[in-house]
Amino acid sequence: MPFKRFVEIGRVALVNYGKDYGSLVVIVDVVDQNRALVDGPGMVRHQVNFKRLSLTDIKIDIKRSPKKKFLIAAMEAGDVKNKWEKSSWGKKLIVQKRRAAMNDFDRFKVMLARIKRSTVVNQELAKLKKEAKA
Amino acid sequence: MGQFRFHQYQVVGRALPTEKDDKPKAYRMKLWATNEVRAKSKFWYFLRKLKKVKKSNGQILAINEIYEKKLTITENYGIWLRYQSRTGYHNMYKEFRDTTLNGAVEQMYTEMASRHRVRFPCIQIIKTATVPDELCKRDNTKQFHSENIKFPLIFKKVRPSSRKLKTTYKASRPNIFK
Question: Is domain B75-143 classified as CATH 3.10.129.10?
Answer without folding.
Answer: no
